[in-house]
Structures are given as C-alpha cells and as structure tokens.
Amino acid sequence: MKKLLFQFDTDTYPSVFDTVVAYDGGADHVIGHGGLTPENVTALVEGAIFTRAPKEKKNTAIFVGGSDMVAGQALFKAVQKHFFPGFQVSVMLDSNGCNTTAAAAVAKLLVNRNVAGKKAVVLAGTGPVGQRAAAMLAKEGAVVSLTSRKIAHAIQACDAMKARFGVDLIPVEAADNNARVDAISDANIVLATGAAGIELLTEEQWRYNANIELIADANATPPLGIGGTDVMDKGIERHGKIIWGAIGFGTLKLALHRACIAKLFEDNTQVFDAENIFALAKEMA
To answer: Which of 3, 184, 203, 230 is deepest in the core (most CB within 10 A)?
Structure first.
C-alpha cells in the first residue's frame, strides 16, 4: 500500500522544499493543498481518516506547513479536532521550519556545551525559528533573551512562547547593530535567526566579547547574519567561540525532517510538534 502524505499549507502554494524532503523521507506520493485554514480543512481531513481500514491508516499522514507559524498552529489544532478513536492519522507541524530548523540548531549547540544557567540571546528572534529555538533553549535551562527591532514584537513573541511552552523569555528592543552589541554584552550563547541577507552583527562586534562561548547563524544567504562566520561552520572554533553555520547544522535539519516523515508512517497516532522533534534532534545530534 502506498504511503500518502497530504501537505496542508497555509500559503497559497505548498512549499516545494517541504515536498522534496517529504519524498526523501519515504513518502510514495505527496499531495499538496494550499491556502488552508481551520474553516476549510474539514473535508480534506475526513477524506484522510475515513478511507483506509484501521490497520492501513498508518500509510496516510498529514504535514502542516507554510510560512506563518501562527496560522500553522491553528491549522494543526483544527486537523486534530476532527480525529476520534479509530479514525485518525499521524500529523506533523513544521511551518517555515519552526520545529526542525530550531531543533537542529539548538541540538548542535548542546553538543558543545551544557546550556543550563547560561545566558542566551536570540537575535531577530520573532520569526518561527527564532521563537521556537528560544523556547527550546529555555527548556534546557538557559536564561534567554529575544530581540526585535520593535519591543512590541519582542513582547508578543515572548508571550506566545510563554503560552505555548510555559517558558519565560526576556524581550529586548535592538533596532540596530549597536543595540544588538549591547544585547549580547553578557551573553554566553548567540543565535541569529534574522531575515535572509541582513547582517545583524559584524565580526568586530562579537570577536572580542570574552563572554560568548557558542554562536549559531541560521542565515545562509550573503551577507550572513553574523559577520566573520561561514555557512559551512560545523562546531569550528573562531576567536575562542564555537561556531555553527546554517549549512553546518542544516545537515542535521534535513536528516531530522526526513526522519520525522518516516516516523509518521510507523503508526497512525504520531503527533510531531516541537517537543518530540527536539527530543529526536538531540538523539541524532
């Protein structure tokens, strides 16, 4: 029986990236649907849960994606509301890589250090990856600050992670490079999760900071988020700091994403969100 993965995307067009990884993860067919909302997904979910016999439902799964994590979370919940005993399929949330990319980055940082009690700063952290990475670091015992150009956005992101994960994050306004230098002045860990092609720190702004032990940059598009690093850095030491570049930990992200897809087809009751995706990332790292 064919393994069918239904790609439920909140954007108009389903992500090509997610489609490719789904096939690489073992799906026989990937069927994409774009523009989905909690209001229009009912018939699609019913089609997935009512068609195959109980022992065969493991061959059907749903992946929720798109660029908007808030919309993805709402859709993820709506999909599961249609499940009931004997009629459900496995489902995964990874809007804009919010879970797999964040989990891979933090898992690689954990390879080098125990972060409990350390001060971590997630620069430009209001996006999907930044928010969830901040929450994962906090769950590991780090004291985490999250920066944004506007304090209101930082507060909103921190409040959202408090509501979802029960963690306390510190919102910080950092509208320019100088403000970001101040934000990392006593940081032990710096993770950059800003928009592609925007430099958040120059090399000179971090290389002489003796407090910093670990740096990771999720941006793979020049100029990088943190100057003086390289996208291929894999735990390399630069100026006394351990550096992870976007492709450096991206290898784990892709392997993790594929592994999660494969696990969706092990049975029909899998629910993959931040917690178990992060746990798997730590095992794989």
So the answer is: 184
